[in-house]
Write a structure and sequence with these properties.
Helix content is about 30%, strand content about 55%. It is an alpha+beta fold. A 6-stranded mixed β-sheet has the order 2-1-6-5-4-3. The radius of gyration is 15 Å and the shape is globular. The protein starts with a helix and ends with a strand.
Length: about 140
Amino acid sequence: DDKAVIAVQLDAEHEKAKRSYQARDVGGYMAIFTADLRYRQPNGRTIGHEELARDVASQLASVESAESSYMRESLEVGPNRATEILRQTATVKTRRFFLFRHTWHVERRGRYEWVKHAEGWRIREVEVLLEKVGAGS
Protein backbone atom coordinates (compact mmCIF):
# COMPACT_ATOMS: atom_id res chain seq x y z
CA ASP A 1 0.00 0.00 0.00
CA ASP A 2 1.56 3.28 -1.16
CA LYS A 3 -0.08 5.25 1.66
CA ALA A 4 1.47 3.03 4.35
CA VAL A 5 4.91 3.25 2.71
CA ILE A 6 4.68 7.04 2.47
CA ALA A 7 3.54 7.27 6.10
CA VAL A 8 6.67 5.38 7.17
CA GLN A 9 8.84 7.68 5.05
CA LEU A 10 7.23 10.81 6.54
CA ASP A 11 7.65 9.38 10.04
CA ALA A 12 11.38 8.99 9.34
CA GLU A 13 11.61 12.64 8.25
CA HIS A 14 9.73 13.77 11.36
CA GLU A 15 12.14 11.76 13.51
CA LYS A 16 15.20 13.35 11.83
CA ALA A 17 13.74 16.81 12.43
CA LYS A 18 12.99 15.96 16.08
CA ARG A 19 16.55 14.74 16.67
CA SER A 20 17.96 17.87 15.00
CA TYR A 21 15.80 20.12 17.18
CA GLN A 22 16.86 18.26 20.33
CA ALA A 23 20.51 18.63 19.25
CA ARG A 24 19.95 22.38 18.59
CA ASP A 25 20.96 21.83 14.94
CA VAL A 26 19.09 24.57 13.06
CA GLY A 27 20.37 23.46 9.64
CA GLY A 28 19.43 19.85 10.24
CA TYR A 29 15.99 20.86 11.47
CA MET A 30 15.35 23.23 8.57
CA ALA A 31 16.37 20.55 6.03
CA ILE A 32 12.85 19.11 6.33
CA PHE A 33 11.45 22.22 4.59
CA THR A 34 11.68 23.32 0.95
CA ALA A 35 13.37 26.62 0.09
CA ASP A 36 10.02 28.01 -1.10
CA LEU A 37 8.26 27.13 2.17
CA ARG A 38 5.01 28.88 3.07
CA TYR A 39 4.40 28.65 6.84
CA ARG A 40 1.08 30.04 8.01
CA GLN A 41 1.22 30.87 11.69
CA PRO A 42 -1.76 30.69 14.09
CA ASN A 43 -2.27 34.48 13.75
CA GLY A 44 -2.71 34.08 9.97
CA ARG A 45 0.67 35.60 9.07
CA THR A 46 2.66 33.63 6.50
CA ILE A 47 6.45 33.44 6.68
CA GLY A 48 9.03 31.77 4.49
CA HIS A 49 12.03 29.51 4.98
CA GLU A 50 14.50 32.24 6.02
CA GLU A 51 12.23 33.80 8.61
CA LEU A 52 11.33 30.40 10.06
CA ALA A 53 15.05 29.55 10.27
CA ARG A 54 15.67 32.79 12.22
CA ASP A 55 12.74 32.01 14.55
CA VAL A 56 13.98 28.46 15.15
CA ALA A 57 17.56 29.68 15.81
CA SER A 58 16.22 32.18 18.32
CA GLN A 59 14.16 29.49 20.08
CA LEU A 60 17.03 27.02 20.19
CA ALA A 61 19.35 29.59 21.75
CA SER A 62 17.48 29.20 25.05
CA VAL A 63 16.22 25.60 24.83
CA GLU A 64 17.63 23.30 27.47
CA SER A 65 15.57 20.26 26.46
CA ALA A 66 12.64 19.42 24.21
CA GLU A 67 10.39 16.40 23.98
CA SER A 68 7.63 16.07 21.43
CA SER A 69 5.25 13.56 19.96
CA TYR A 70 2.56 13.59 17.32
CA MET A 71 -0.45 11.70 16.16
CA ARG A 72 -1.36 11.67 12.48
CA GLU A 73 -5.08 12.33 12.09
CA SER A 74 -5.14 11.95 8.33
CA LEU A 75 -2.92 11.40 5.31
CA GLU A 76 -3.77 12.00 1.67
CA VAL A 77 -1.31 11.02 -1.04
CA GLY A 78 -0.96 11.85 -4.72
CA PRO A 79 1.79 11.80 -7.31
CA ASN A 80 4.92 13.09 -5.53
CA ARG A 81 2.89 14.82 -2.84
CA ALA A 82 1.29 14.08 0.51
CA THR A 83 -0.83 16.12 2.90
CA GLU A 84 -1.14 15.21 6.54
CA ILE A 85 -3.00 16.61 9.50
CA LEU A 86 -1.00 16.18 12.71
CA ARG A 87 -1.76 16.79 16.36
CA GLN A 88 1.49 17.51 18.18
CA THR A 89 2.36 17.90 21.84
CA ALA A 90 5.66 19.18 23.16
CA THR A 91 7.32 20.07 26.43
CA VAL A 92 10.17 22.54 26.08
CA LYS A 93 12.44 23.61 28.92
CA THR A 94 14.26 26.88 28.50
CA ARG A 95 16.97 28.64 30.45
CA ARG A 96 17.88 32.31 30.38
CA PHE A 97 21.02 33.83 31.88
CA PHE A 98 21.90 30.45 33.49
CA LEU A 99 19.44 31.19 36.29
CA PHE A 100 15.90 31.30 35.03
CA ARG A 101 14.29 28.06 33.95
CA HIS A 102 10.88 27.78 32.40
CA THR A 103 8.83 24.89 31.06
CA TRP A 104 6.39 25.33 28.20
CA HIS A 105 3.71 22.90 27.08
CA VAL A 106 2.63 23.24 23.47
CA GLU A 107 -0.31 21.62 21.71
CA ARG A 108 -0.53 22.18 17.98
CA ARG A 109 -2.71 20.91 15.19
CA GLY A 110 -1.49 21.56 11.69
CA ARG A 111 -1.75 20.73 8.02
CA TYR A 112 1.52 19.81 6.31
CA GLU A 113 1.93 19.61 2.55
CA TRP A 114 4.87 17.46 1.50
CA VAL A 115 6.54 17.15 -1.89
CA LYS A 116 8.87 14.39 -3.03
CA HIS A 117 12.37 15.59 -3.99
CA ALA A 118 15.46 13.68 -5.07
CA GLU A 119 16.71 13.89 -1.45
CA GLY A 120 13.39 12.69 -0.01
CA TRP A 121 10.15 14.15 1.28
CA ARG A 122 10.18 17.86 2.18
CA ILE A 123 7.49 20.14 3.63
CA ARG A 124 6.43 22.89 1.23
CA GLU A 125 3.51 24.32 3.15
CA VAL A 126 2.42 24.41 6.78
CA GLU A 127 -0.82 25.77 8.13
CA VAL A 128 -1.06 25.89 11.92
CA LEU A 129 -4.75 25.26 12.55
CA LEU A 130 -4.64 25.45 16.36
CA GLU A 131 -1.93 26.23 18.87
CA LYS A 132 -2.09 26.32 22.65
CA VAL A 133 0.97 27.30 24.67
CA GLY A 134 0.97 27.13 28.44
CA ALA A 135 3.48 27.45 31.21
CA GLY A 136 4.31 24.38 33.23
CA SER A 137 6.28 23.59 36.32
